[in-house]
Amino acid sequence: MNFFIGKIIGGLLGLLSGGPFGLLIGAFAGHLVDQKIGQLLLGQASPGSSGRGDLSVQQVFFRTTFRVMGKLAKADGRVSESEIAAATSIMDQMGLSGAQRQQAISFFSEGKQPGFDLDPDLALLKRVISQRASLAQMFLEIQLSVAYADGQLALEERRLFSRLCNQLGINAFQFEWIHGRVKAALAGHSARTASSERQQLANAYAVLGVEPAASDAELKKTYRKLMSQHHPDKLVAKGLPEEMMKLAKEKTQQIQTAYDLIKKARS
Are residues 84 and 26 in the same domain? Predict the structure, then answer.
């Protein structure tokens, strides 16, 4: 969204007081005012912010992540111990402590309040991650990981995910592909020692989102694409909060482990 009031007023005042040169100075000063107004109105600046676009994305991503997390935890009527533990685990993996941790807890608590409206957060998130599909994917993967903390995805939670996808512009096919991969990764992690080799291999294919009949070339192409999408440095460069880099690293490790298992089985 563009703002022009500051430029117009600044330019006019500069012209009246300093002629053409004053016009340029006034317009530039007005431009700076317009930028600040835009940041405040769009919620893209906060005290202490450097004003960089990537930092704004980080702030919005962080806030929306924990508010949605709280909303999901409360979706079925009560916040279970396992859901609280899952949210706490995310904070631990992010290394949150002190003020940052309290902020995350505060956002989580806001999200689980009855009637809390997520629409403004989701609209802003969609705007700041526009053209950054990998961030939207990472956002959903984090939420699904917490939603499955109690072992299942309740009907109310499914409805909320449908709403999230609609707001973020993610179609049903994309969601089910992400959903299947996250579910397989969680299943593989929880039953890694107890499951048979056949089950582990099936989970590995599901983690990559490919069919067992896929060719070696298709498998490698998908693997490379997923590794690129989840590369921690690339995600942080696109706006993922640096605290969430550990989560991205865990995702890449899951992808790498699944690919190595399939390669070994095919050799």
Answer: no
Report pLDDT digits (tens) over 95-116: 788 888 899 999 999 999 988 9
Q: Are residues 133 and 244 in the same domain?
A: yes
The answer to whether residue 48 is domain-embedded is no
Judge contact between 18 and 25, C-beta under 8 A. yes
* DSSP-assigned letters across all residues of the chain: ----HHHHHHHHHHHHHHHHHHHHHHHHHHHHHHHHHHHHHTT---TT----HHHHHHHHHHHHHHHHHHHHHHTTSS--HHHHHHHHHHHHHHT--HHHHHHHHHHHHHHTSTT---HHHHHHHHHHTTT-HHHHHHHHHHHHHHHGGGSS--HHHHHHHHHHHHHHT--HHHHHHHHHHHHHHHHHHHTTTTS-HHHHHHHHHHHHT--TT--HHHHHHHHHHHHHHT-HHHHHHHT--GGGHHHHHHHHHHHHHHHHHHHHHH-
pLDDT, tens digit, 9 for 90 and up, residues 74-102: 887 777 788 888 888 888 877 788 888 89
186 and 218 in a common domain:
yes
Instruction: Please list the rounded mean pLDDT of every run of 10 residues in the chain (267 residues).
Output: 45 49 47 46 40 62 91 82 83 83 92 90 87 83 84 86 90 88 74 65 86 90 87 77 74 88 89
46 is a domain residue? no
Total structural domains within the chain: 2
Domain residues for the domain of 120 are 53-266
137, 10: one domain: no
